[in-house]
Amino acid sequence: MSRTIVLDHAQNASSDISNGTIMKIAFFDIEDWEVEHIKKNIKGHELKFFKESISKNNISLIKNYDAIASFIYAKLDKKILDRLPKLKLIATMSTGYDHIDLKECNKRKIMVCNVPYYGENTVAEHTFALILALSRKIYPSIQRTKMGLFDVNGLRGFDLKDKTIGLIGTGHISFHVARIAKGFEMKIIGYDIFKNKDMIKLGLKYVSLNELLKKSDIISLHLPLNKSTFHIINSKNIKTLKNNSIIINTARGGLIETSALGKSLASGKLLGAGLDVLEEEGCIKHEDELLRKKFRKPCNIKTLLENHVLMKLDNVIITPHNAFNSQEALQRIIDVTIENIKAFHNGKTFNAVKQ
Ligand code: NAD
């Protein structure tokens, strides 16, 4: 059900953007405080704000629009793009852009911009929230005291000091994970197609993916999801993981083959998993649609079911793609999105995604 438009905001006053043309820009998944901030900072354009994600319910309201700013909840695929013949810019309010069909955008000469660095420390801090929740059994500990019990039986955890953390992907978020890991006096190893000098300065040692899987007590994923990274942890290589290791994924669900993860957790090979992202998480969000005539998007029901099994396992903690969600990070997202739109209007490429 569409939650309808928050408001339209058209201004003919002189633009604060040098190029004189007035753009029609639609913002999706937007909160009230963001509306106010955008209105203050983008003047001279026709703005439309939606609280909900872009969908077939609201797309007819923006069919002549030049630009959209949206979050990761809706797939921007051929079907959606077909309905937006005038679209020239997608400003995704996220780092990841795997929800956008870049090939289609390229064909249609639609520029795609993202927000590359808004949540480096934010996601890294959430990564450690998941690690510590598992290493110190925080969730069952709290459940117990909520029941009025003050008993430590079965709640013994493990220290992070001197443990090896293996970072798959050593980019921006990973750097902050390594910085925090250093504070815990952990050994840090990493795998990436590129070596990051700053990581080496922090004390990270680059190894092969195989070596990382074998040696890490904690594996944390910090990769984009694309053809080369899809199921980078899979039924074959998950067997080589160190016994009793834990795996943390705050990047994208598709990096891990869900069935392989479930089997390793259920068999006790893996001690635990902390997941902020799941394969088919978009379907979980809308799974009530399964009961309606038509499911909004194709969905792998087996993976969906496996996710439900994961949610119930005692050694798995799952957060609902919430790692980015700090006030400071959201402010940075909105500010950079505004800059991306302004730059586009000025004929510049700012944070353009390579297509
Ligand atoms: P980044 O681009 O700075 O780092 C990604 C790293 O992955 C790069 O160093 C790159 O070389 C490496 N890489 C790419 N393909 C690879 C491959 N095939 N094998 C090995 N290494 C490869 O990205 P980042 O800012 O650190 O973000 C990482 C991911 O985190 C994003 O792509 C996004 O999907 C995810 N993310 C999640 C949230 C959340 O709320 N859970 C928020 C922001 C970002």
What topology, given as strand order, has the largest sheet? Answer: 9-8-7-10-11-12-13
Mean pLDDT: 91
- Please give the oligomerization state of what you see: single chain
End-to-end distance, in Å?
33 Å
The total count of helices amounts to 12
Radius of gyration (Å): 22 Å
Main sheet attributes: strand count, strand direction, barrel closure: 7 strands, parallel
Flag low-confidence runs. Answer: 1-18
Supply the number of structural domains: 2
**Proportion of residues in helical segments:** 25-40%
Tell the overall outline: globular
Which descriptors would you attach to this protein?
about 350 residues; Rossmann fold; seven-stranded parallel sheet; six-stranded mixed sheet; 13 strands; binds nicotinamide-adenine-dinucleotide
Fold and architecture overview:
This protein has a 7-stranded parallel beta sheet, with helices on both faces. The radius of gyration is 22 Å and the shape is globular. The chain folds into 2 domains: 4-118 and 329-345, Rossmann fold (3-Layer(aba) Sandwich), CATH 3.40.50; 120-325, 3-Layer(aba) Sandwich (Rossmann fold). The two termini are 33 Å apart. The chain has 12 helices and 13 strands. Residues 1-18 have low confidence and may be disordered. Helix 1 (32-41) runs parallel beside helix 12 (327-345). Strand 2 (24-27), helix 1 (32-41) and strand 3 form a beta-alpha-beta unit. It has helices spanning 32-41, 78-82, 102-107, 120-135, 138-146, 172-183, 197-202, 209-215, 258-267, 281-285, 301-312, 327-345, and strands at 5-10, 24-27, 46-50, 67-70, 89-92, 111-113, 164-168, 187-191, 205-206, 218-221, 245-249, 270-275, 316-318. Helix content is 33%, strand content 16%. The protein has 355 residues and is an alpha/beta fold.
